[in-house]
Design brief:
Helix content is 44%, strand content 19%. It is α/β, with parallel strands linked by helices and 263 residues long. The protein has a seven-stranded mixed β-sheet with strand order 3-2-1-4-5-7-6, with helices on both faces.
């Protein structure tokens, strides 16, 4: 934990902000964060079009925008995009990327659970791999409902990254067996991995963000027409080409999904 962690007022939200601040430097180097190929870019465009349509100048809010990957995908489709994140190192990289690409995307600092954005100011709200980290998703979903215009759409792209897959369970069992037999070296300590574990213990979806649970909370927040889409295979296949075989297979077998909901 860094120096901020010593204070009595240091909260789980501060922990999450600092974790992603530390991850910013290598964020775009990891498959599943930055777009690794044109095939993956096309697959993301297809998913966004399927649920949101073309932008045609409509206003989009990309929550927990990180280095602006999804913001640029939305801009490609013609949306007027605002990216919101509260990790300053992420925002620095997002703004630099937008300048380099000549894209007029607005990046602002803010908490995705409490955006402080004006009511009924966006046509679409999009999140990617954010919901599983939320401390209070019910409150966050009410906030997102509020910032959407009537008829506006929320698209949540997320997954259960906690529950082990069949391959994950097999790998863990083999690792444990090797340790008992004295085979293999012990994995070195990883401060970021430990911080991730500590965060996960405190978030709402600590046991995994399942699509049906997310959709139910969205309905409680006032959304209607919630639809779960698990047809993300094109994205997974494109990403798998840049991963070791078994890791790509494990990712493809995780419970990953998109949920679209209408105000």
């Amino acid at each position: 934990m860094n120096a901020h962690g010593a204070g009595a007022n240091y909260s789980i939200r501060d922990e999450i902000r600092d974790y992603w601040s530390e991850r910013a430097a290598t964020f775009d180097t990891q498959v599943g964060h930055e777009i690794a190929s044109e095939a993956e870019r096309r697959a993301w465009h297809a998913l966004l079009r399927r649920h949101l349509g073309d932008g045609a100048g409509r206003r989009a809010l990309d929550l927990a925008s990180g280095t602006g990957v999804v913001s640029h995908l939305l801009h490609d489709l013609g949306f007027d995009v605002t990216g919101l994140d509260w990790a300053e190192p992420m925002l620095e990289r997002a703004r630099a990327k937008a300048r380099a690409r000549g894209t007029p995307i607005r990046f602002v600092m803010g908490d995705a659970e409490r955006t402080m954005e004006p009511a009924e100011s966006y046509d679409v709200v999009v999140t990617r791999h954010l919901v599983w980290t939320l401390v209070d998703p019910a409150a966050a979903f009410r906030d997102w409902h509020q910032v959407l215009k009537p008829g506006g759409r929320l698209l949540v792209v997320d997954g259960d990254f906690v529950s082990p897959t069949l391959l994950g369970r097999a790998t863990a069992a083999l690792t444990a067996l090797a340790a008992r037999l004295g085979l293999g070296a012990r994995a070195p300590a990883d401060p970021l991995r430990e911080r991730h574990r500590r965060i996960l213990e405190q978030v709402y979806f600590r046991h995994g963000a399942r699509a049906d649970a997310v959709a139910a909370l969205l309905r409680e927040a006032g959304f209607r027409q919630t639809t779960v889409d698990t047809n993300l295979g094109a994205i997974h296949r494109a990403q798998a080409r840049h991963l070791p075989l078994m890791k790509g297979f494990d990712r493809a077998t995780q419970h990953r999904y998109a949920v679209v909901a209408v105000k």
